[in-house]
Amino acid sequence: MTHILEHVMAPKSGYALVVRKGQRLRVTDLEGQQVVDMAVFNNDNYREKLSTAYSRSRYRPKPGATWYPRDRVSEGDTLMSTICRPLMTIVRDTPEPKGIHGMHSRSCNRFFYEVNGIEGQDGCLEIIGKALAPYGLLPEDVPDTMDLFMNYQHDCGEGRWRLYPPVSRAGDYIEFRAEMDCLVGLSNCPESDVTDCNAGRCTPMKVNVFQ
């Protein structure tokens, strides 16, 4: 593959980029246990964007094959849009165990921090919104995100979700192949004081695009 872009996201920063059909987007955890929220749009029609619910559904590849919705995605799975079309396919997912990425929650936001006693802090919603502003998008246009490396587990006994430190280590990455031209908005999650989302610290992440 030809390397065509590299960008290091500082802690608590955002980034937006266009990934063309057939190109590969890789997000690397440089120091380990850091979450990145990712929003994806059809670059030719921003109203079509990531649906985490459709992405969790495994559709029948042929008549008679098993269909079942599930709670995580990993290598070989496809991120689907709000009109159920393929946006990106996961081609590599190196952390072990695989598939530990948040697919069931909205991004953190200013309200989340305010109710936890932290004033004036942007969350991933606002960070992605600012990164996408040059494309004419607003925070309210941001869909439910895929939260890369977020360790979000369901507790059936308590009927609730629990957040644990990420399993990713330094150098772990997830890589996607674009199935259409995609606009991608990223937030290097700023949470370090309320939950174990980033194991109590915020660290840099690396973004690469390959052809």
Describe this structure in words.
It is a single chain. Helices cover 9% and strands 38% of the residues. With 211 residues, it is mostly beta strands. It has one domain. Strands 1, 2, 3, 4, 5, 8, 9, 10, 13, 14 and 15 form an eleven-stranded antiparallel sheet that branches. It has a two-stranded antiparallel ribbon with strand order 6-7. Strands 11-12 form a two-stranded antiparallel ribbon. A hairpin with a 4-residue loop joins strand 11 (151-155) and strand 12 (160-164).
Question: Number of domains in the coordinates?
Answer: 1
List SSEs in N-to-C order: EEEEEHEEEEHHEEEEEE
Uncertain residue segments: none
Cα distance, first to last residue?
6 Å
- The number of helical runs is 3
The gyration radius over C-alpha positions equals: 16 Å
Mean pLDDT: 94
Strand content: 35-45%
Largest sheet: 11 strands, antiparallel
Overall geometry comes to: globular
How many strand segments? 15
Structural class: mainly beta
Percentage of residues assigned to helices: under 10%
